[in-house]
Amino acid sequence: MSCHCVRPIVCPPQYVVRDYFVPRLVPVIHPVVTVNRENIVNVPQHFIQQYTTTEVVAAPQIGFVGTPGFFGGRLF
Predict the structure, then answer these.
(1) Residue 68: pLDDT band by 50, 70, 90 thresholds?
(2) How far is CA 24 from CA 18, 21, 27, in A?
């Protein structure tokens, strides 16, 4: 039996690429600064300061007519 072996021809490989995508979470940080501002506003606050005075009024000397029940400015 004679062997007629033929050497096979080997071609260079061909590539088939199948891409798959896998999600990967990447943290994105957004800094937020809260500023509490206290604004001073002048608002008028009114106070009433009460004074009491006593005045003595002298009766006129001329033409004075006494009030009934009074004598010389005193009650009797």
Answers:
(1) low
(2) 19, 9, 10
